[in-house]
Amino acid sequence: MKQRPSIALLIESSNSYARGLLRGIMSYIHEHQPWSIYLPEHGRGNVPANWLNNWHGDGIIARIENSKIADAVVKSSVPAVDVSAARLAPSLPWVETDDHAIATLAAQHLIERGFQHYAYCGDHRFNWSCWREEHFHQSINNAGFDCHVYPQSTRRQKAIPWEREQQRLSEWILQLPKPVGVMACYDIKAQQLLDVCRTINVSVPEEVAILGVDNDEILCNLSEPPLSSIIPNTHQTGYEAAALLDQMISGHIVSSEAHLIKPLGIATRQSTDIQAIDDKFISDAVRFIRHHACDGINVQDVLKSIPLSRRVLESRFQKIIGRSPHEEIMRIRLDRVKQLLEETDLSLIKIAERTGFQHPEYLNVAFKKQTDITPGMYRRNQKTQEKNH
């Protein structure tokens, strides 16, 4: 019997990006010959454990984040593939996300929302953040706009205490022209921006629209408001890394040039679900609707919050937003209905109560008018998709 190749995976499992890589590797194994996997407990940036110096396996897939890991993997003399943007082992084949494509997609997403002002908030300790900054800045400039960049003192500065970073982020956000579309280098930085905006009473997305990267669904949906995020194809990245390693184990020569994987798209949530609005009264009306739509408000309640007649509100709202105030109220309510159908087992009566519908029958009619199916069918379809996925 042919012995299974013994493969070490030096990839942490503490974040959604790394778990996506592992799922891609797993898919490759399931579709091809089995591997004997060694997945030690490993944190991002950890120094190599002693076992690696004396390991005699057949291959390694590693997220190489420091020079000690790089040296240990290279010295092991076994076939290895790097899945880190740090690029500390240039002799190894390298599979990474396409940061140019990510930044271009982010710029397109924000430009489509009509902003005149743009900004990038990154972390210069990481190559991928610097590359995304460069490409986002270029994309925004090519579109004829300026891009404000969060200032950082040195490229490889250590992480500073959160209290100090929070103060610096607050000062930066306050001085940005508004409304502004902001790309954050990844979801954790985007969540920090959301927290800061809430602390200094800057409205998201009306004044600052924020877009992250990685689409960590738990992090994005726990954010307030829920965070829009670019979806990297981590599954394909892991799958490609496994395929390259398999070729190397079989004796094929694999180039050390970059294998870059394009993102899948954008998961649009509330943090960028906006058209840039220069009209203060319409901006205030949109903000009021977003905050209170599920409280059962109507257009008359909106009018109480701004000094406009109904005719002027309807006209200006339709021109800027492309929907009437009533349609916007219903859109937000029904988006919340979909979320509750997907994420909870609440009855339709309870969902109606939580989304501003006086009767579940009215919710049912409104939902079917928008989606062509009933709420019950929508919930069943979502559960079927989850099982298939």
Care to describe what's here?
There is one protein chain. The protein contains 15 helices and twelve strands. It has helices spanning 16-31, 67-75, 99-111, 127-142, 162-175, 187-199, 217-222, 234-249, 280-292, 299-305, 310-321, 325-343, 348-354, 360-371, 375-388, and strands spanning 6-10, 36-38, 59-62, 80-82, 94-97, 118-121, 147-149, 180-184, 208-213, 228-231, 258-261, 265-267. Strands 7-6-8-9-10-12 form a six-stranded mixed β-sheet, with helices on both faces. The longest helix is centred in the C-terminal third of the chain and has 19 residues, at 325-343.
CATH topology type of the largest domain = Rossmann fold
Helix content: 40-55%
CATH level 1 class label of the largest domain: Alpha Beta
| Annotated CATH architecture of the largest domain | 3-Layer(aba) Sandwich
Structural classification: alpha/beta
Instruction: Give me the count of strands.
Output: 12
What is the mean predicted local confidence, pLDDT? Answer: 90
Number of domains: 3
Question: How many individual helices?
Answer: 15
Global Rg: 24 Å
Observed structural traits:
DNA-binding transcription factor activity, six-stranded mixed beta sheet, Rossmann fold, 15 helices, transcription, Arc Repressor Mutant, subunit A, 12 strands, 389 residues, four-stranded parallel beta sheet, LacI/GalR-like_sensor
What is this structure's SSE topology?
Layout: E1 6-10, H1 16-31, E2 36-38, E3 59-62, H2 67-75, E4 80-82, E5 94-97, H3 99-111, E6 118-121, H4 127-142, E7 147-149, H5 162-175, E8 180-184, H6 187-199, E9 208-213, H7 217-222, E10 228-231, H8 234-249, E11 258-261, E12 265-267, H9 280-292, H10 299-305, H11 310-321, H12 325-343, H13 348-354, H14 360-371, H15 375-388
Parallel strand pairs: 1-2, 1-3, 3-4, 5-11, 6-7, 6-8, 8-9, 9-10
Antiparallel strand pairs: 10-12
Helix pairs in contact: 1-8, 3-4, 5-6, 9-12, 12-15
